[in-house]
Amino acid sequence: MLERGRIAFLDLTTLGLSFVGFLGMIAVALQLKSGVIGVPRLLFLTFLALSCAPFLSAFWRIPKPPYLIAPTVALFLLYPITAPHGIIYGRDPIYNFAFTNQVATTGFWQPGSIGGLADTYSLYPLGNVFQAYLIRTAGLDGEVAFLWLEPVIRLLAVPATVFAIGQRMFGRRIAALGLFVYMGTASILFNTIVQQGMGIIFVSLAFLALLLLTHSPSETARFRTEILFALLALGVVMTHHLSSYIFAAWLVGLAALVGVRRSWRPSFPLRFGVLAAYFLGILGLYIVTVSYRVFTVHEQSLELILDRLISPESLPTSTTPRLGRTFSTLEIAWLGGSVLALPALGWFSVRSYRHVPRFSFVVASGWIAALLAIGTLPLLATGFDFVPLRVGEYTNLFLGPLAAATFLRWSRGDAGPLSRFALSRIEPVIDRVSRKAPAVVVVLAVAIFIGGNLAPAGMRMYFDGKSQWNTDTPLLFGADDIRLAAWSRVAYGSALIWGDHLSTDIFTGLGYMHVVFGNSVIFAGPTINWSTLCPGDYVAVSTLMTMYPSQWFLEPEPAVRAPLAHAQVDKFGNDPNFSLVFQDGRFSVYRLMSIPPPLKGRC
To answer: Following DSSP, what letter does each residue of 461-483 receive, concatenated?
Structure first.
């Protein structure tokens, strides 16, 4: 037990470090927003970790909540605070906004009635419809309001729920440290405005409801909690597809474990089987009635993953994760270490509590979380590397508190299962390490936090060199794009547009136009591929296409990452069958008036 004076000194130290961290983040953010290139990514993340120093007071006392508010707010609002031009940015957030904007404009949810990827988003309406009606009722500017709405909602819900889960598992002290671990989740979509951000709210609340049910409440309280779980389960299904699948797999895994370990049954929720069956039932019903066409795509993706895992020769020619283009070898190793460290740290706590009956549900969930975190890693080689770099938001709901419990035990010099390896000839070394255990464990926790925060894609564009930019990098997405999108909503309506990712973001994400993915085919070569076109189609090109590589989505073959030649871009303006309908300093939009005979288009 530390003396009160020592505790006060450590508290003041963490507050001082947090202040330095905030000053550093502000200085770095100002540099980044002023266009400075080359700021080290790890420098910003070090300042971010310093700003969260008050969480580390959990190593010697229960942290005071007011000290934790500022770093929590800063981390959960990083996306809108660091937005390059004060509006939404990034492919998925833009399409997420497209669906929300349609509901805000029309006042109705119309599944499958919008173009691009927003068509898929429209099948999972709950979070988007709620935000749309807030925008519509308050009369807010959609592009700006949507930038802040989801982050603020997540700020109000996620930290409190993660803390409550940790508190139910181990108490407030571990809960605070577990929240710190969760804030270092290695997820590419962490704090990005996507449907997963809303889905995790319902998933975490559903887990919290199950934890409440494990504490054998009164009959009345149990009934109310079961009703709450039923509503939350419905919210999971109607908010996000991956959240639904992971939660379903989790419940099935828990049912399988409790079937094998019958001694765990008394500590599980009384009607766990009924609740699990209920969720699987409403998920199946929703798939059959609403989202079946998306589910078939997910089935095909699963078949492709299994084929590639069974037949390694069918793996993509480039198996390097997409992080490899923008991250150094050190950063990739650091990120990978953080991903692997949490299941390992959680395992030590699972091992310690596995024979304590009241922790049976927590132990079982820890096993499931570790299996999901490790079991998805082979997908890195299959081209579906985004899956293991997203599941951390779910698995760390339990791995975070479990890892925090391990940290606290180790900080007291308790090596736990590692003690069996302490041979007599190295016991003096073990003793010296034990005396330094608190400092070593704090450094380890901070290293895992920094490594996990390498993954989120929200600020990644600031740390890319210009050689790594694409035409749709958010740093190039600004007022010209917004003006063109607004003009297209009036001039083009829902016509078909051809272009790279920059164009589809503008015309189908912020506009109402439709897109056929596989657009690179009409830009291949110096001549026009008429077979894919139809009179009335629009083609959008920009000067950026000859300066930076274009991004293409759902292409039959991977496109070569290189800028287009001038001949590939200028051919539409040089052909008399195309009419120029819009042009400014960056963009040119052409409308196909006719197809030269005897050639035939797609219509």
So the answer is: GGGS-GGG--TT-GGG-SHHHHH
Q: Could you give the CA distance from residue 526 to residue 504 in angstroms, rounded to a whole number?
A: 22
For residue 241, how many C-alpha atoms fall within 13 Å in the half-sphere facing its CB?
Answer: 16
Q: Is the pLDDT of residue 425 over 50?
A: no
Alpha carbons 436 and 440: distance in angstroms, whole number = 6
Q: What is the DSSP letter of 267?
A: G
Q: Is 511 left (phi over 0), alpha (psi -120 to 50) or beta?
A: beta
List 496's β-bridge partners, or say none.
514
Q: What is the pLDDT of residues 378-402, one digit of tens each?
A: 888 777 778 888 999 999 999 999 9
Contact 173, 408 (CB under 8 A): yes
Q: Is the peptide bond before 598 cis (omega within 30 degrees of 0)?
A: yes
The pLDDT score that the predictor gives to residue 413 is 65
The pLDDT of residue 421 is: 41
Residues 386 and 423: beta-carbon distance below 8 Å: no
pLDDT higher than 60, residue 121:
yes
| DSSP-assigned letter for residue 564 | P
557-571 tens-digit pLDDT: 555 678 999 999 999
In our burial notation (b when 16+ CB lie closer than 10 A, e otherwise), range 446-476 reads bbbbbbbbbbbbbbbbbbbeeeebbbbbbbb
Would the pLDDT of 438 be above 70?
A: yes
| Max Cα–Cα distance, the chain, nearest Å | 91
User: Judging by DSSP bridges, how do beta strands 514-515 and 496-498 pair with one another?
Assistant: parallel
With bands split at pLDDT 50, 70 and 90, how would you rate the model's confidence at 496? Answer: confident
Phi and psi at 542, nearest 5°, equal: -140, 160
Of 275, 278, 271, 279, the closest CA to residue 216 belongs to 271
Q: Which of 160, 183, 159, 151 is closest to 79 using CA atoms?
A: 151
Q: In what order do the strands lie in the sheet with 538-542?
A: 514-515, 496-498, 538-542, 587-592, 578-583
Q: What angle do CA 37, 43, 45 make, to 5 degrees?
A: 110
Helix H segments across 412-478?
427-435, 437-452
Two tokens, residue 560:
């070569």
